[in-house]
Batch of 3 targets.
Target 1
Amino acid sequence: MLNIKIRDEYLRDIIHGILIKDTWKSLTSCDILLIRHDNNCGYTYNEKAYAHLTDSLGDIFLNRSLTVKTVTRPPSVLTGERGYNHPFSFNQYYIYLAIFKQVIQFIKGKEYSICWEKHQRVALWRTILEKANPKIVIGTLPDKFLCQAGNGLGIPVYDLQHGVISDDHPWYGAKYRIDTPIEILPTGFLCWDDQSVATLSKWVVEKGIRVIKIGNPWFLRFMKANQDDRLVQDVIPASESWDEARPSILVSLQWGLMDFYEDVSNGVMIESLERVILDTYDQYNWVLRLHPVQLRVKYELELVTSYLTSTFGAEITNKWMNDSFLPLPLVLRNVDLHITYNSMIVIEAAWGGIRSGILNPRIKDGDGFENYYVHERSLGIAEVIPQDSDLIKQWIIHTLAKGRAEPTMDTTGQELDAFINEIVDWGKK
C-alpha cells in the first residue's frame, strides 16, 4: 500500500509538472547558470522557494556583479514566481520526450528508443546552454546529459555537494564511477570538507576532473553573519527565543525510512527514542526537525504530523514544524546534542562541535553502511548508540557532560572566497 502511495505522489508531481508552462526558450545570456530541483529547496525566503546551497552561491555571485540565472530539473513546480531568482522550467518538453520514447520503443524497439532519448536529452541541454552561454554551470547531481552537453560546448559543469559523499555512494564512490566515460562526467566537484575531497580523489583525479573544497556556502554565510546579508539578518531574531534553561537536544528526522528500514515501523522514528522523549520531556528541550520533503510532500507531511500529534500532542508538533523552517546553522547554535537515525546532519552538527548519536545499527555492524560518518566517528564526535531506551538516556547524560567538541569545519570561508574570485576573474575575460 505504501509503494502505491509513493507512486501516486510521484505521479502527482508529474501531473503538476505538465501544468507548469515551459519557460526555458526565453532564457538569455548569463555569467552563472544554476541547476536545481524542488528537493533542493529546503528554505523559503520572501515567500519563495530557496535552494539553500545553490542560491547561496548565486547570491554571492550577484553581489560580485555577475548575472545569475536558474534552471530547474524536472519535475519541478517551484519555478517562475514560486522560486527564488525566478527559475526557468522545461517540465513539459522533458515529459514529452519521455512519452515519445515509449512510442518509439513500441515501434522500433527498446535499444533504438534509448539511443533516441539520449540524443534528444543531450540536444535539449545543449540548446539551453547555448541560450544561456554561461561561464560556468553549478548544480547538485548534474545528469550525464547535461555533463555531455557542457563538455561538448566547452562550458564547465560543476557538481555542488549536497549530502554525504562516501565510497558506498553510487554517484561518488570509486567502485561505481571509475569506468564512467569522462565525457558524461562533471568538469569538477565542489566539496564541503577534506574527507569528501579524499573520497572523490580516488577516481576523479586520474580523469583530469577538478575536486575543490569550498565548504558549505549555506553554513558559512551564517557563521559570518554579514550585516549586509538580509536573509541572515532577517531570520536571526526568530532563533533567539529558545528555552535555554534545559539542555536542548536536536532530533533530525528523515523521510521514507519505512521503505528501507524495518526497525522504523511508524515511518518517523524508532520506538525506543519515542519512549525517551516522552520520559524526559520535562528534563530536556527536545527539538524535532522535519526533513524538507516531509514539509513539502503531502503524503510525507500527513504521515509525520499524524504520528507526532498522536504521540506528543498538537501544540508541540506545531512548534516543531515551525522551527523546522529555521535555517539549520541557527538551530545548531542553540542545541547541545544531536540524535538521528542516520541523517547527514551528523556532518553539519560536527562543523559546530555538536556531538551526534546515530541510531542506525547497520553503520556499526556493516551491511553496506560502515563507511558512513567514518571521520566524525573516528573523532568521537559521533557514535552509534543502541536502540534501547535506557542506554539512550545514559548516552545523553554522559555526552552532555562532555560539552561541545572541537568544530570540524574551518569557518573562515577562505576556500570559498578563492573559488568565487576565480569565477569572477573568468567573468572578466
Note: The chain has 20 helices and 13 strands.
Target 2
Amino acid sequence: MALLDVCYPFARKAGVVAQVPAENSAAPPVSLLAGDASLTSGDCLVLLLPGALGTAINLCGVRAIGRPLEVREANVKEADVWIGLPRVRPRDSAQLRVAAGAGEWALYPWGIISAEGSLLLKDASPRSEGVCHKSIDRIQLFASSPDSKALSQLASAYSLEGLMARSETGEEPFATLCFLGGPGPAASLADDQPFAGVVTGKAVLGSPGASTPFRAEDRTATAFHRQAAALVMLYSSSTMMPKSAGALDTGAD
C-alpha cells in the first residue's frame, strides 16, 4: 500500500483484500485470467485504469455497542464482536475533519484474552496498518448487524458529494462496482441493488468517505477497512481530474 501511495500520491485508489473460501464452502473459487492464476487469502489485486474514479467507503453491517471507553454486557456472540481502534484524535472527529465511521475507527476481530488479561487481536497488526502508533487511548466495540439500507445510503452520500462538486462536463459514471469487506457488509447486500460487479473479501482498501473525480484533493493514505463497503464509480473520461495522477507525481499542475 505504501508503494502505491508513493508512486500515485494523488490518484484515487480502491480495492478489496481477497478471502479464499474454505474447501467445504459453497462459494465460488477466486481466480484471475480465466483460472490461470489463483488468489490466496490476503492477496491484493491492483488494476490501473485510464478513466477517472470516484469512491464511497464507510463501515457497513456493524453497530456500535455502548460509548467509547464504556464496558458493558451485550447480547451478542463473541464471533460477531469487533474492536474499533481510533484512527484520529477525538478533536478531529468532533470538528468533522474526517469522515464519520470508517474515518474514525479501524475495526479488528475479537481476539484472545491472555492469562495476564491482555487482549491479542486475531490476524491483525494495528501498527503495521498505521493505527495507534504510540498508544491506545480509547476503544469502541462494534457488533455485526446486517443493514439492507447501508449501501443505498452510501450511494446517496456519493451522489450528494457529486452534486456539490460537479464539473462542467456533468459526466455520470458508466458502471458502479461494489466491494464488501467482512461478513457484516456481505450480509447487508440486497438482491435488488444494481451493481455492475460485486466482490467480497476480508477488507476494503481506500480513503474513507466520498471522493469524486470533480475536484483535486490532498494526498491521502490508502487504508484497510474491515466490516466496510466500498462503492467504486467508473468514468469513461480521464480528463475530469484537475491534476494528473501518475508515477512520481509531484502534484504540480
Note: The longest strand covers residues 53-59.
Target 3
Amino acid sequence: MNKIIFCFLMMGSFCFGCLCIPQIKMAYEKVENHIKNYVGGQSENIEQKLIPEIEKSIQDLQQQNLILRQSVMIESQNILKQKEILFEMHKKNQMLY
C-alpha cells in the first residue's frame, strides 16, 4: 500500500513542471543577448580599427624590406669592389718583391 501511494505521489510530481522555467528561459535569453552584443562589438572593433592598422603595418614592413634589400645589395657591391682592390694591391706587392 505504501508503495502505491509513493508511486502516485511521484507521478504527481512529474506531472507538474518546474515553476521557474520562464525565469530560466528569460535569464538564458538575457545572457545570450549580452554575449551577442559583446562579440558583435569586438568584431566591429577588429574590422574597423585593427585590420586597417595591420594592413598599414604590412605595407610599411614591405617598404622597409625593399629598402633593406637595396642596402644589402649596395653593401655587397662595395665589399666586392674592396676585395678586388685588395687583390690588385696584393698582386702589385708580390710583383715588387
Note: Residues 27 and 94 are 94 Å apart (CA to CA).
